[in-house]
Amino acid sequence: MRLMSFVALCTLGLSAQAAELTLADAVYVHQLDNQEVKNYLWNKTDKLTLSPGKHQLKVSYSKIFDDGFDSHTKVTVDEHWITIQIPAEGQYQLTTPELIDIDAAKAWQEAPSFVLEGSKGKALATLAPRPEAPPKAPADPAAAQSMAEQQLQYWWSQADDATRQRFKDWLNQQH
């Protein structure tokens, strides 16, 4: 219920410039940018409301394939990050290339990719997953410098006198 309320609020807040991303049956989103997305055993999140622009998604894949009489094989891809670019408001779908049988699914599992499709099913981008999210660059360069300065001050305060002297010597060699 909370998730539906959250989605409704997001929809109202982004109604002027919103895109709806529908997820294929076997594609699961666990995180959208810095927001966790809940998936429950019988209630998978299958649509996300996004603003146009760049988004980081933590995705996984899980599907059971029939591979013979009374035999099934589950194909999974663990959680990985992908970056999607939503060009404008509208309808989009996050899916996989067509996996017609267990052999195609197992081959895809070794080097998975996801596909961002537009409203008419046209592929807009192929997205290769990576294990970690890329670091987010600070929007303000002054803030980045301030953060670097804060980190230097912190590590300086943690160092003993010998380490500080080695650092000073190294720093003098740099100029």
From TrEMBL:
For this UniProt entry, which residues form the secretion signal?
1-18
UniProt keyword Signal present: yes
Query: Is the keyword Signal in the record?
Result: yes
Coiled-coil region: none
Annotated Pfam families: DUF2057
Alphabetic keyword roster? Signal
Instruction: Tell me which domain of life the UniProt entry assigns to the organism this sequence originates from.
Output: Bacteria
The record's listing under InterPro entries reads: UPF0319
Which family does the entry's similarity section mention?
Belongs to the UPF0319 family.
Record-given protein name: DUF2057 domain-containing protein
